[in-house]
Design a protein that fits this description.
By secondary structure, this protein is of the alpha/beta class. 33% of the residues lie in helices and 21% in strands. It has 3 domains: 85 residues, Beta Barrel (OB fold (Dihydrolipoamide Acetyltransferase, E2P)), CATH 2.40.50.140; 141 residues, 3-Layer(aba) Sandwich (Rossmann fold); 83 residues, Ribonucleotide Reductase Protein R1, domain 1 (Orthogonal Bundle), CATH 1.10.40. It has 9 helices and 13 strands. The strands form 3 sheets. Strands 10-9-8-11-13-12 form a 6-stranded mixed beta sheet, with helices on both faces. The protein has a 5-stranded mixed beta barrel with strand order 1-2-3-5-4. Strand 4 and strand 5 form a beta hairpin. Helix 3 packs across helix 4. The chain is globular. The relative contact order is 0.11.
Amino acid sequence: MQLKNLGWSESFAHSFAPYAKQGYCVGRVAVAHRSQYQLYTERGDCSATLTGKFRHQAEKSEDFPAVGDWVVIHLETATHQALIQAILPRQGQFSRQAAGTKNEAQIIAANINTLFLMSGLDHDFNLRRIERYLVMAWQSGATPTIILNKADLCEDLEDKIVAVGKIAIAAPILTLSALYQNNLEALTPYLQPGKTIALLGSSGVGKSTLTNKLIGHDVQITQAVRADDSRGRHTTTHREMLKLPSGALLIDTPGMRELPLWSNNNRTAEQPTDTIGETFSDIENLAQQCRFRNCQHSSEPGCAIQAAIESGTLSTKRLNSYQKLQREQAYQNRRQDKQANSNAKARWKHITQMVRQQRQD
């Protein structure tokens, strides 16, 4: 398979050029299982592991390859086994705060063109969750598209489309029924050769069903959801990049119960809400119309946001969601800045100790 059909671009080619001169090959991560990886290469699929040097130099989880990454490899043609030497610079990534107490990012998928944010039109439907997904989607560098699945089960479809439209801002909204293949043709413009799409959503929204329909046969196990609350069980247990008949690449992901924010690197502690501002541009625009620049949007005179709430053009729930995400992002920024300073001190301490040891020797 040609690299361009795997999402290769001039930017990646430029980053890879020094490695190419040394005789290395390149592959794209399709599956990541701890220390074992499955790659797509122009010479076919192969298994891969990390070199000892790579593993030693990796300081945190995001330093390891993720699904969608382009990696520099030494490929043994005879055995079709590869050793991963390095990761090419990412052109975006969808990340969340990793589980546990460590202040680290968990990269869900890297180098994505489009994010399908999938929500069920049943008990799973949650505007606040969609807002959170949008904030993180815009931060990833990919273009989000909202997919409202299970339209066949929804009795108030038009009302829900209108409700999502009020929070979607620039994100397109598609409705479909993956189980019955209704309106799947609406996805065609996104499924172009060489384009990478990541499928995100909570358990039970129909991600595995949609994946199977797009592939043309069952590659993911599907399970019924509970009728009383529409909650599903995890049928996809790992992230995997699949080749679609259209030539596009689809990254299917497990349902995520929690979606804590993670800050990208293009921000400061004083400006923590870049992508929140994009997602809530209606509120940001209203804030510019407030009488006072330091308006807290509570009881101040001349508050345009409170006026919008009173007139019904803005809901209190959306304002609360905006403020909650702002607080969460600011807190996360402070944690990351503190962690970065701590890591830098530890790194320089290690370097100093090595220099002293060399002088003694």
